[in-house]
Amino acid sequence: MRNEFTAVIERDGEWLLPGHRRFLGANGQGRSVNECRESLGAAIQLILEDRREDGLRGAPPDALRETVTIQ
Question: What are the residues facing 12 on neighbouring strands?
């Protein structure tokens, strides 16, 4: 599945600092825009994985688990 997110990249001295307004805490850094994208992408991926795990905690063992795909 492909997801796209819009990053806001700000300069801080020699560093570029990407962030995402929808994923608070999703931050990264890099010296190039490409490094920023990779760093922020890794942060967003970790947040999404944690949210998936958190959403399943406490679910009854007999609950149905279905995948919903959006594009």
Answer: 15
Please provide residue 37's backbone torsions phi and psi, each rounded to the nearest 5 degrees. -60, -45
Q: Which residues contact 43 (CB under 8 A, 6 or more apart)?
A: 23, 25, 26, 27, 28
User: How far from 21 is each of 8, 32, 68, 69, CA to CA, in Å?
Assistant: 8, 20, 24, 23
State the residue for tokens 């825009």.
33
Is residue 31 over pLDDT 90? yes
- Give phi and psi for 43, each to the nearest 5: -65, -45
Q: How far apart are CA 19 and CA 36, in angstroms?
A: 9
Residues 35-61: what's their mean pLDDT? 88
Paired tokens of 13: 């001295």
**Phi (first) and psi of residue 9, to 5 degrees:** -110, 125
